[in-house]
Amino acid sequence: MKAKIKSILLKTIKEYNKDLNKGNYSFTAFIDGDYIKSEWDIGMDSGPIKEEWFFVPDKEHQGNWCFMCDGGMGWEMMNCDSDYNYKSKNPWKFSELCSENFEKAGLFVEPYASWRYDISKN
Fold first, then answer.
1. Model pLDDT for residues 50-61, shown as the tens digit of each residue
2. pTM
3. Closest Cα to residue 53, out of 18, 98, 111?
4. Closest-CA residue to 71 (of 35, 47, 40)
5. How many structural domains comprise the chain?
6. How many Å apart are CA 67 and CA 58, to the nearest integer?
């Protein structure tokens, strides 16, 4: 289940950011152990910027599978009131895409808190 959750999160990030690899930008999302991360290269002399999106732990203490985004880009994208989504035309876009991708896999995403999302079978 853990591998499936990571795969769905990775797919969601890639789908959402599919248009970023145009022009001078380079965007790559990848799995790094229990983390889903991305690397941006915006053509600056500082080199690529690495960001952590999500952490997928072993079963939580309450017995639920989940993913966490305690700060970082994952939190920004999953929360419609975030600074990133401020004034966005559709602040729920990423969250909705995430839910759709989990549903296609026969899973249900339920927010436990702004930083943790529980996963269950549909």
1. 999 999 998 876
2. 0.90
3. 98
4. 35
5. 1
6. 9
